[in-house]
Structures are given as C-alpha cells and as structure tokens.
Amino acid sequence: MGHLKVSLEQWRVLQAVIDHGGFAQAAKALHRSQSSISYTVSKLQEQLGSKLLHIIGRKAELTEAGEVLLRQSRQLLASARELEYLAESLRSGWEAEIHLVVDAAFPAGRLIEVLKEFEPLSKGTRVQLKEVVLSGAEDALHKGDADLVISAFVPQGFLGNRLVAIKFIAVARADHPLHQLNRTITTQDLQLSLQVIISDSGQVQRRDIGWRSEHSWSVTKMETAIETVCQGLGFAWLPEHQIRHQLDAGSLLPLPLDAGQSYDAPLYLVCTRPDHMGPATRLLHDLFLRHSQ
C-alpha cells in the first residue's frame, strides 16, 4: 500500500473551515492560530493538486472538486472515529461480535425490538444472527457456535430462562377438503390429507414433535410451510402469531380436531458460557429477558 499524501487532521481542518464559515472561525473552534489553519488547507490543496476553496470576501466556499472531496472526507473521519471507539470498547472488555442463534418460531417483531434497543448501546459490537428449527439450537450450544441461543429445549448441562410460549394451531386453507367435511376431524381424516412439516435443522439429535402423518412433506423454512398451506397444498400446525393476518382474514381456518387442535411450545434463552459473559452479551441477554416480561 502506498504512502498517503494527506492526513485525517488535514481533512478535519478543511471541514472546520466550511462548517464554521471561515479560517478565523475554524481557528477558534480548533484552538489553533489562523495562520496554521491557512497553511494546512494550502498544503492539502498542494498535495492533492486540486483547488478546493474559493475565497469570496472573508468567506471560504468550496469548488466543485472540494464539494466532492469534503463529502467523502466526512465519511472517512466518521469511520475513523468509529474505529477508535471500537478499539476503546474492545480494550474495556466489550466483545467485537455476538453470535445469536434463534428458533424460527420466535416472534420476529420482538426480536427486532430487542436488537433495535441493543444497537445504540452496543459500542460497535456486531450481531451475527442465525435462525434454526428445533434441535438446531441445541447443536449450536453443544458446539459452542453461539453466545446466546433461543431454543425450544434446554439440554442437559445448561440453564435457560423461559421467554415466551408459542401457540401452534392446526390449520388449512378455508377451501381445503378437510373443512368441507363439516364435522369434527379425526386422526383418520388427517391421515388421508397431506401434512406440511417444518423439518428439524439440527444435525446431531434431530427431533420430531407433535403428531405426524404418514403422508407428509417436509420444508426447511417456516415461511415456506405457511405459504404451502396458504396455497391449499396441505395442513400444518403453525405458530399463531405468524399466521394472525390469514386467520383474521379467514383465508386460513383452524381445523376442528377432536383433540390436539393447538399446543403451546415454550422457548428459552440460554447462554453458552454464563460464567464468561462479556458486557455486550450480558446487555443483549438482559434485554431479551426484559422484553419477555
């Protein structure tokens, strides 16, 4: 990499001249002499080989090239400040990154609320988010691939805090043949229809929960399962909060089962290494708990 012609300080001086309305005002704001400010800007123009300012009366105005370069320099200085802020955060113990694994059934709105509150307090800590299904969360805990996990299960050797209970409802499209029976639906009726199942994303100890038909299709994403049922291809137990719009509109209807029409599935917040939580992980952990209340 070649040697840089100009420094961040030179760009800071140019910004001050424009933002404060002139050389004298910039000198006062930066606690420097006016001659020092003038020399810095002059040297900057010489090093770049481009005129950046016009002096009109006592006021300095940008040339066309100056406008373009000043705009870019503002981004450059902002990035430099963020870099220094991140370095200070790391020095004081704040993590550079948090790996967050979340069961796909967790309400997206609540997740975004937590992350939105976390971001301005994060001191530059990045969040790497991964969505999983069922034992995929357990895999992340056992492998140590996550700092925080929202899981349907708390495996042996870990402790978790209950965040929410997700209500799953057996539904099908309003014109599905099961709804045309106009009576209570039995498991024998279900066996004759296609069931859509969200498959477990785990690799170590895969789980199946709930009733399962011999005639079923498996999909890997909750959104795909919902869309498949909305298209009338089958029935499924789906999270109530994720199909609330379709239920209210009447495009999806609960199946009138003789038993098991709905069930609650709790989700837990689990920390992989609770005795070694950094301040950023602790903050995000506590925000999830507060929002669960």
Write up this protein.
This protein has 293 residues and is an alpha/beta fold. It folds into 2 domains: 84 residues, Arc Repressor Mutant, subunit A (Orthogonal Bundle), CATH 1.10.10.10; 197 residues, D-Maltodextrin-Binding Protein, domain 2. It is built from 10 helices and 11 strands. The protein is elongated, with a radius of gyration of 29 Å. The two termini are 53 Å apart.
Write the layout of secondary structure elements.
Blueprint: H1 8-20, H2 23-30, H3 34-48, E1 53-56, E2 59-62, H4 64-91, E3 97-103, H5 108-118, E4 126-132, H6 136-143, E5 148-151, E6 160-173, H7 187-191, E7 195-198, E8 216-219, H8 222-230, E9 236-239, H9 244-249, E10 252-254, E11 262-271, H10 279-292
Parallel strand pairs: 3-4, 3-5, 7-8
Antiparallel strand pairs: 1-2, 5-11, 6-9, 6-10, 6-11
Helix pairs in contact: 1-2, 1-3, 1-4, 2-3, 5-10
Helix-strand category: alpha/beta
Name the CATH class of the largest domain: Alpha Beta
The main pleated sheet reads as: 7 strands, mixed
Total strand segments? 11
What is the CATH fold-level name of the largest domain? D-Maltodextrin-Binding Protein, domain 2
Question: Number of helix segments?
Answer: 10
Structural domain tally:
2
Mean pLDDT: 86
Radius of gyration, whole Å? 29 Å
Which word captures the global form? elongated
